[in-house]
Amino acid sequence: MPLDKATIVAHGLNADEYRRLLEILDREPTPTELGIFSVMWSEHCSYKSSRLHLRRLPTEGPRVLQGPGENAGAVDIGDGLTAVFKIESHNHPSFIEPYQGAATGVGGIIRDIFTMGARPIALLNSLRFGSLNDPASRRLVAGVVEGIAGYGNSIGIPTVGGEVAFDSSYAGNPLVNVLCLGVGRTDELVKGLASGPGNPVYYVGAKTGRDGIHGATMASAEFDENSANSRPAVQVGDPFMEKLLLEACLEVMQTGAVVGIQDMGAAGLTCSTSEMGARGGVGIDIDVSLVPQRETGMTPYEIMLSESQERMLLVAQRGRESEVEQVFEKWDLHAVCIGQVTSGGQLCVRNDGIVVADIPNRQLADRAPLYDRPTELPEYLSRVQRLDTATLPAPGKLSETWLDLLATPAISSKRWIYRQYDHMVRTNTVVLPGLGAGVVRVKGTNRALAFSVDGNGRYCYLDPAEGGRLAVAEAARNVACTGAVPVGATNCLNFGNPERPEVMWQFVQAIDGIAEACRALEIPITGGNVSLYNETDGKAIYPTPVLGVVGLLEDTALVLTRVFPVAGLDIVLLGDAVGELGGSEYLMLVHGSACGCPAAVNLDRERALQKLLVDAASKKLILSAHDCAEGGFAVTLAECCVESGGVGARVDLPDPVDADDRFGLVRTLFGEAPSRVVVSVSPEDRDRLLERARFFSVPAMVIGQTGGVQLSISVAGKVVTAVDLEMAEKTWSEGFTRHFEHVAA
Amino acid sequence: MKFAIIEFPGSNCDHDAYYATKHVLGQEAEFIWHKGADLRGADVVVLPGGFSYGDYLRTGAIARFSPIMNCVREFAKGGGPVIGICNGFQVLLEAGLLEGALLRNRRLKFLCEHIHVRVEQIDTPFTCGAVAGQVLKLPIAHGEGNYHVDPETSAALEANRQVIFRYCAADGSVSDTANPNGSLTAIAGLCNVSRNVVGLMPHPERACESVLGSTDGLVVLESAIATMVAKGAA
Question: Which residues contact A473 (CB under 8 A, 6 or more apart)?
């Protein structure tokens, strides 16, 4: 019987997609089949708007063991070990219910790692909210942080760092991107594929309920005033259950009896059965009446679409069922055989024996819609890219601006956040949060893994291609500053509604920028996530691609942080890019505007700089390294001194480029540009460092000395601004915290 | 010298305690599953940190019913050294092996950072290698570390010298600002009347290597080793 149009629309399928469905089935779909197509062909699961463009990302490299297409990416790190990592978003759920939205985001990405046979060892997150002056944003921040903490702490995986930024652009659409890093033995990695007709298919983990049904379709649509009604679509997490599942799964994979395993995330049982079957080129036949359920009266449709958390789909070798079941029994978890692998390629779903869905699985995957959506240069672009400093009021007192920048939520200490995360559990955390990229050691080796998440929505709004390049450069640079060599990347692409040509244009541009930078810096993308439809009432977020870069540090003992270790060292500025005000934190803070163009990155120079950092760190030539980012050079210098135990700095910079420029000094102090790093070196090693810099063709200039109780910046020998270190430290420590706790004056 | 590290469903810091005792201190160490029937000849029992049973009901409330706790109780009754770290401390309180309760941190938020504790008494198996008043820099990571007990018991604990660790500043001074979670009289750890069972909220097993930020935790584990060596268990 033909389904009515309203039902089809409610399932998010347009006329064209529905026609395609009819062609595949050669008949009308059953309700369960409609539900399956609906979620598998949603934006979130099928990537129909982005897939075409993602193909332009470079995904290959000598260390890559697994690129995009699996549950996570994998990179060889030597000693028979593999780093497994990926970043994912949980944006829409976090707006609806911040605690559970963020918590289940953490839970989901952790499962993506251990399903590969790797033990998760650390987490990072990249967050975006509206202004902290808005109580609604503060509520979201508190809820999201509590959710990440609640889940991560309970399951015992340290959250060791991340980034957070604030802009009214994100007020109705917070971004919660979580990156998980794990380590596994290369010869023990397991893929998410089903194979071997006759092999049993197991459902393991928590019982299935009605939570999260159509969560995938919710993530594929915008919000409006009715969005609060979407609350039932937000999943509820149980980290204790996931801890048991994690241990049990890693243990069962050791038996060798596991053919393939995948977690049930978005679109739950539907997605896992379909994807595992498609990857293995086989069919899967399951009976949903065998699925452990925690609610009564669930229909096959509900069971297939449920996004209840902490569940995995496991294909075992026939004959070894008891080995598998014993492991889950030890951990008091459900492990139920719900079906088997079949030849013939059908995804067949039964309810108490009766077939309720019978779909050619290959076609469900291969014939998923693929769109080349139209793009159009945004109308606002030429307007916002203009920045005429002549129209700006004269700069104020430089030292006041300096302190104001240190106090902005984006720049100030995030200790209020990270002290809520157990960042030390598993005793691998070599660099504490807030000191640079996250660094965790790999026990059993001398090595460590450094990783960082970075993105700048404002830059991308003003120039998406450049913003994409800059995001890759910054994440890789943060890794290189620890002394580690970047070896792989994962990306989370957060954008608005792709059906709007302006947004699609932003997306395509950003992809091109990311691809170019990854190629130039030789960092392959091993996987990632796309989150579209981040807009409310027709207003989209800034295009916000977030890059997570993972690096390998050969000797943990040589790790570097941002902090000047002692007084009496030389301060050297590597890189000589000129700071720009376009898209800068200064411009937003002092003038409340996001306009101009961010300084472009010269990828050859960036590559050379990163190679120099790794080289100098390995030779113990530099004692600290910190890259110039938001707030420009002056903020970077301050960040090298705060938490140093009272080590100040005195530097002298060359004259600004244009002596007549009213904003010349402002540009020098607070202008932002890539490919610049401030390092400290002991005087006896200084010449050798400069020689290495020449070798790599990296501009390097000795600009001053560490020490003293002040932060003092001169230009051409004349002091232009100075602040007491104690004042800078206090301002920086309290800037963010002030919004959440009463801080005594 | 064998350390038994009890593993409950949801224990996380069991791996950390194992690594510290076995790999850093070179001792024999073994995981004992909570359903186990015996302690396999252990000389020291460690109840590690984590979120046993997901903190359902109350922290440590369910773990204390695990079969292995019968063995731990017997071992403690016989004078065997037992240390409960963080969630392990919570389990010991629920099991009645130590007195008092741990409430939510006074600021209501989970707190992970390095703090200092002062060693108040050195006649326990876990502090005999320290000097009285020694200040240790140790990490804490908990949401429920706010020690509380009724006034009579509190007075008894002090009179009996059962308070083993107190939160303090880096210079050893005890004050409200140096108290991270609001614990009564800044109690960070205490022992039982027989002085062989010690519970503490800070994590000494996370402070055994300089690369992690402090080695002040070594003295706690080394004291246990020294105690058993003296007893001829090596």
Answer: A517, A521, A601, A603, A606, A674, A675
Angstrom distance (rounded) from CA B125 to CA B127: 6
Does an H or E element contain B113, and which?
Answer: strand B111-119
CA atoms of A735 and A741, how far apart (whole Å): 11
Give the Å distances, CA to CA, from A123 to A182, A366, B133, B202.
Answer: 9, 33, 37, 22
State how far the Cα of B16 lies from the Cα of A621, in Å rounded to an integer: 33
Q: Which residues contact B162 (CB under 8 A, 6 or more apart)?
A: B121, B156, B190, B191, B192, B193, B195
The DSSP code sequence of A371-394 is --------TTHHHHT---GGGSPP
CA B27 – CA B104 distance, rounded (Å):
35
Of B9, B13, B51, the CB nearest to A331: B9
Q: Structural domains in chain B? A: 2-231 (3.40.50.880)
Neighbours of A262 (CB within 10 A): 26
Query: A126 in contact with B at a CB cutoff of 8 Å?
Result: no
Tokens 């001792």, located at residue: B27
Report H helices in A306-397: 321-330, 361-366, 381-384
Q: Name the band, by pLDDT with cuts 50, 70 and 90, for residue B233.
A: low
Residues A657 and A580: their CA atoms lie apart, in Å, by: 11
Confidence check: pLDDT of A222 > 80:
no
Rounded-to-integer distance, Cα A156 and Cα A120, Å: 10
- The interface predicted TM-score of the complex, written ipTM, equals 0.96
- A525-531, strands of its sheet edge to edge: A429-431, A438-441, A448-454, A544-553, A485-494, A525-531
**pLDDT, tens digit, 9 for 90 and up, residues B104-127:** 999 999 999 999 999 999 999 999
pLDDT at A7: 85
Of A153, A156, A429, the CB nearest to B110: A153
CA-based nearest distance B103→chain A, Å = 17
Q: What is the pTM of this model?
A: 0.96
Q: 3-class SS at A190?
A: coil
What confidence tier does B231 reach under pLDDT thresholds 50, 70, 90? confident
A686-727 residue pLDDT tens: 999 999 999 999 999 999 999 999 999 999 999 999 999 999
| Beta-sheet pairing, B197-200 with B82-85 | parallel
Of residues B29, B41, B34, B134, the one with CA closest to residue B87: B34
CB A520 within 8 A of CB A514: no
Residue A742 pLDDT exceeds 70: no
pLDDT of residue B219: 98
Q: Is residue B181 within 8 Å of residue B127, measured between CB atoms?
A: no
Q: What is the 3-state secondary structure (H, E, C) of B143-175?
A: CCCEEECCHHHHHHHHHCCCEEEEEECCCCCCC
- pLDDT at residue number B95: 96
pLDDT at A229 over 70: no
Measured CA to CA, the distance from residue B209 to residue A743 in angstroms comes to 35
Of the candidates A412, A390, A531, A422, the residue with the CA atom closest to the CA atom of residue A92: A531
B141 with A238: Cβ contact below 8 A:
no
| Cα–Cα distance, A290 to A235 (Å, whole number) | 22
Among the partner residues B9, B109, B141, nearest to A422 by beta-carbon distance:
B141
Q: Which of A424, A432, A643 to mutate to test the interface with B (most CBs of B within 10 A)?
A: A424
Would you call B109 and A420 a contact, using CB atoms and an 8 Å cutoff?
yes
